[in-house]
Every structure is written in structure tokens, then in C-alpha cells.
């Protein structure tokens, strides 16, 4: 824990675990912490645009309630009083929820998503809602209807997507924790691009009730943080069975916090997925990955190699399954019940005009692709075949886990690309998720943590860990062990070396 947390700068740079300890010891108040973050948001938002909506009044009210309860001797949850940001895909009662789309501009839900309810029950002040690619369709947060989010490491770079707002808020020190969602890498790839940590839990391990759906068999809510332990602490808050979600697993949360605190990999078999180390891997990313393997070996892990040959078809299968499910889920935006409405001469014309105005180009592209894949005469040839590939990918994982306890790869093949660089080439954008997609297709947990800076551009690289279903704790054990050795090598946290927001105000643009 830092020796002193007596300045706003020290407060916002402290870990969530350290903040929780300082709050519990009454060395800080939640109002002080929350106000420090609100001030940081004011200073950094002109440059970053991580947030779509803020709730300063609500956050400070929650903070004051926590402080009063603590002063009265009430027993509080571990993260009580620690602020948090929430990706704008989760419904928040009384606070706008848009999923980054003009289709839902100004919509205020009358209820909370289950994960938001859990955050409130944990007594965590909600700072606001973070920016995202529209309906979570994108890998750069450039497809938001409300403007791009910028990467705090380099303001001309993308923060990843679709959850770039949550990751950028963490990297800019404008939130200590954030809720994300991951359909094909939307937590893990932004974590890699911004030097932060993000976890996609086992499918069904965290409720999706009240989360705006993209692809229901792939979507998963998960925690985002600046350290492995912080991420585990939030994971424990979010996880658990929810009878309101028919896909929710009726099983307790794995012991993720204990695993993160231990960080022990002695005798653990770490499987390197050879199929994710091929063409397109940036040399600096490959170098940091190799160094990380050596750190794990030195920590007592056994490094083995595994083959997952069906992974080469993952992107093709994913971009049939996801658009098909998106086409079905987004059919509800028909201008008749809620969402933007452009009146026409008939119900059909009203619906057509409203969807044309409300949806952005990337959403329209995927709806068209998905509707085609599900159409008569093409269902078996496209969607059906993609589901068969999905089964093969799951079998590859099963075979690999017979040889290894966890599997690893780079989180993304490259560091953060420049804003606008891939907008004219959708396939190039889709391939940015080539290493993360397999986890979603198989429903398995995955975690990304920073493993250094690539030599070519000085930008963060990510190390990805896969585990079997409901073995999420293994992710945190490996992640914590690697993080500890990397921090020793770096002389501290990687984010302390981020250059773009060194002064936080001069760089505003």
C-alpha cells in the first residue's frame, strides 16, 4: 500500500485494493475518493472521451451513505466506497443507457441490470457509463454514435473495442474499476491496448439480465481493473447465479480473490497455443510474450506446447454466428415500442426509416450479413456450418486441456492501431480479435494482463490466459504470478510509464 494517500493524484493512482483498505481503516472517506475521481474525469475527458454519461450527484450520495454507515460501525462489503464505471451496455435505473447507439439516445431504463444491482449492493459509487462501439460491434470504439474514445498512451490511437471506454477510463486514472462486456474480445483486447487488466468469465458465470444483447450465446459481462487482484475483487462482486438469466450457471464463484492473492504457479502446466503465434504477430508483441513465458518458468510453471488446429477457422465461424444472433436480437428495434422513431406513411416505412437513421454503418453491415446467413437456402450452408466449426473449437480446447492446466497466447496480434487506420477494411478490423474469439465460441474464461511495451512503438502488449470452464481462479493465479515478476522487472506498474496524460490537462484537445 502507498505510504501516503493524502493528495488527489495519489488517490486516483492507488489500486482498488489499497483504496478499499484505506477506506476500511478510515484513513480516507469515500466522498474524498469519489470527488478525486470526478475531478480527474473533468480533467481528462476532453482528451479521452471515455464516458457517455456521468452521475456525480448519485456517486457522491452513495459515497456519503457509505461513510455514514462506516462511522456508525456497520459491517460493509470489501469494496464499499470504491468508485466504479459501467460500460453503457448494462441498464442503469435513472441513468441513460444507449449501448453507444443513436437508436437508444436519451433512453433511461426503469430497472438495473443484475450486475448493476450487485455493484449497488456492494455499496460502490457509480461514476458514470463508458463509451463503446455501437451495440458492442467493433474493435476500436470508433463505431460509437457519440464519438471516438482515445487511448491514453497515444491520443491518436484506438483504445480497442468494443469496451474501449472502460479500458481508457482505467488507463487515464479516471476510474479504479470498470464493468465490461466481452462477445469476442471486447474486454481483453482493450485491456491489451491500454496496459490494463480484463477478464471474460466462464459463460454463465456472471448474469446477463438487463444487459443489451448482441449475440446471446457469446456475450459475457466481466470485470476490468488496473491489477490482477483488483480485477479479481470485482469479479467476486459480479459473479453468481441469477434466476432471471436462463443461461446463468447455478454454481458458486470460483475462489478468484484467493488465487490472485496467492499467485502460485508451482508445477502448473502452461500450454502455449502454437496456432495463435503465426502470421501477423507484431515482433514486439512476440518478444514480450516469450519473455513472459520465461518469467512463468522461473516462477515454477512447466511450459508445454499445444495445437488447436480449428482455431484458424474461428474468425470465419464467429462472423457468421455473431451477425446471425445480432440480426435476431436487434429486430426488436422496430420503432413501435422504444428507440428512435421516424414517422412514415405506414408501419413498414416507419420501421425502415427509423432503423436507417438509428443504426450506424457497422451495425447495418452485420445485420445484413446475419439475415443473409439465416435466410432460407443458406442457413445450413453458412450458419449451420459455423456451428459445426464452433464444436470443433470446443473439442480442440478439451484436447489441449488434457496436456495443460491453462493455455496462453498474446491477447492481440498487435499493439493499438491508429484511429481510422482500419475503418476502410472491415476484415482487417475483424482480424484484430483473432486471438480472443475462441474463448467466446467455447464459453471459456480468459484474462488479459499487460506484459510490457513493444519495441517498435512503445505501446502496451497483452498476455492472454485461458482456463477450463469454471476454473476462472486459474487465470488469476497465473496472472498474479506473472504480474509480480513483471512489476519487479519494470520497477512498478506499467501504467506509471504511460506518457500521454503525464500532466492530464495540457494534453486536452
Features:
single chain, GatA, Amidase, Amidase signature (AS) enzymes, disordered C terminus, 17 helices, 11-stranded mixed sheet, ligase, alpha/beta, 509 residues, Glutamyl-tRNA(Gln) amidotransferase subunit A, globular, 11 strands
Describe this structure in words.
The protein has a single domain, classed as Alpha-Beta Complex (Amidase signature (AS) enzymes). Helix 5 (114-121) links the parallel strand 2 (84-87) and strand 3 (126-130). Helix 3 (30-48) runs antiparallel to helix 4 (56-71), helix 9 (256-262) packs parallel to helix 17 (472-490) and helix 11 packs across helix 14. The protein has an eleven-stranded mixed beta sheet with strand order 1-3-2-4-6-5-10-11-9-7-8, with helices on both faces. The longest helix has 23 residues, at 379-401. 40% of the residues lie in helices and 11% in strands. It has helices at 8-13, 16-24, 30-48, 56-71, 114-121, 164-171, 188-194, 228-238, 256-262, 283-298, 314-329, 347-358, 361-374, 379-401, 426-430, 437-442, 472-490; strands spanning 51-54, 84-87, 126-130, 177-181, 197-200, 221-225, 269-273, 302-306, 406-410, 446-453, 460-466. With 509 residues, it is an alpha/beta fold.
Amino acid at each position: 500500500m502507498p505510504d501516503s494517500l493524502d493528495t488527489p493524484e495519489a488517490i486516483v493512482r492507488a489500486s482498488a485494493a489499497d483504496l478499499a483498505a484505506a477506506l476500511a481503516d478510515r484513513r480516507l472517506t469515500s466522498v474524498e475518493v469519489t470527488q478525486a475521481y470526478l475531478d480527474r474525469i473533468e480533467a481528462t475527458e476532453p482528451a479521452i472521451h471515455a464516458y457517455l454519461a456521468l452521475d456525480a450527484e448519485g456517486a457522491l450520495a452513495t459515497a456519503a451513505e457509505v461513510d455514514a454507515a462506516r462511522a456508525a460501525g456497520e459491517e460493509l462489503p470489501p469494496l464499499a466506497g470504491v468508485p466504479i464505471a459501467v460500460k453503457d451496455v448494462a441498464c442503469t435505473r435513472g441513468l441513460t443507457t444507449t449501448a453507444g447507439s443513436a437508436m437508444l439516445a436519451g433512453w433511461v431504463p426503469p430497472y438495473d441490470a443484475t450486475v448493476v444491482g450487485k455493484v449497488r449492493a456492494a455499496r460502490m459509487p457509480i461514476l458514470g457509463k463508458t463509451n463503446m462501439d455501437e451495440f458492442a460491434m467493433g474493435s476500436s470504439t470508433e463505431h460509437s454514435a457519440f464519438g471516438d474514445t482515445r487511448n491514453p498512451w497515444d491520443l491518436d490511437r484506438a483504445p480497442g473495442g468494443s469496451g474501449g471506454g472502460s479500458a481508457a477510463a482505467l488507463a487515464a486514472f479516471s476510474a479504479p474499476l470498470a464493468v465490461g462486456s466481452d462477445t469476442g474480445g471486447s474486454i481483453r483486447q482493450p485491456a491489451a491496448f491500454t496496459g490494463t487488466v480484463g477478464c471474460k468469465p466462464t459463460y454463465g458465470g456472471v448474469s446477463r439480465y438487463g444487459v443489451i444483447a448482441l449475440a446471446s450465446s457469446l456475450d459475457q459481462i466481466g470485470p476490468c481493473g488496473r491489477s490482477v487482484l483488483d480485477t479479481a475483487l470485482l469479479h467476486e462482486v459480479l459473479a453468481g447465479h441469477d434466476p432471471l438469466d436462463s443461461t446463468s450457471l447455478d454454481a458458486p464463484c470460483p475462489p478468484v480473490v484467493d488465487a490472485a492473492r496467492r499467485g502460485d504457479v508451482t508445477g502448473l502446466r502452461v500450454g502455449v497455443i502454437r496456432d495463435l503465434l503465426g502470421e501477423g504477430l507484431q515482433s514486439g508483441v512476440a518478444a514480450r510474450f516469450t519473455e513472459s513465458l520465461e518469467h512463468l518458468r522461473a516462477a515454477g510453471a512447466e511450459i508445454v506446447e499445444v495445437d488447436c488446429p480449428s482455431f484458424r477457422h474461428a474468425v470465419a465461424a464467429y462472423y457468421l454466428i455473431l451477425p446471425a444472433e445480432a440480426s435476431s436480437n436487434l429486430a426488436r428495434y422496430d420503432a413501435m415500442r422504444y428507440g428512435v422513431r421516424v414517422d412514415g406513411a405506414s408501419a413498414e416505412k416507419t420501421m425502415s426509416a427509423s432503423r436507417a437513421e438509428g443504426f450506424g454503418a457497422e451495425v447495418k453491415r452485420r445485420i445484413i450479413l446475419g439475415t443473409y446467413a439465416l435466410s432460407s437456402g443458406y442457413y445450413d450452408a453458412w450458419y449451420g456450418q459455423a456451428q459445426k466449426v464452433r464444436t470443433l473449437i470446443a473439442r480442440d480446447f478439451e484436447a489441449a486441456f488434457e496436456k495443460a492446466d491453462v493455455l496462453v497466447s498474446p491477447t492481440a496480434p498487435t499493439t493499438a492501431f491508429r484511429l481510422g487506420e482500419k475503418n476502410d477494411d472491415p476484415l482487417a478490423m475483424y482480424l484484430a480479435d483473432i486471438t480472443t474469439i475462441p474463448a467466446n465460441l467455447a464459453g471459456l474464461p480468459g484474462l488479459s494482463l499487460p506484459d510490457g511495451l513493444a519495441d517498435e512503438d512503445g505501446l502496451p502488449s497483452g498476455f492472454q490466459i485461458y482456463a477450463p470452464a469454471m476454473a476462472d481462479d486459474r487465470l488469476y493465479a497465473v496472472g498474479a504470478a506473472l504480474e509480480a515478476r513483471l512489476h519487479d522487472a519494470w520497477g512498478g506498474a506499467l501504467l506509471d510509464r504511460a506518457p500521454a496524460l503525464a500532466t492530464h490537462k495540457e494534453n486536452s484537445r
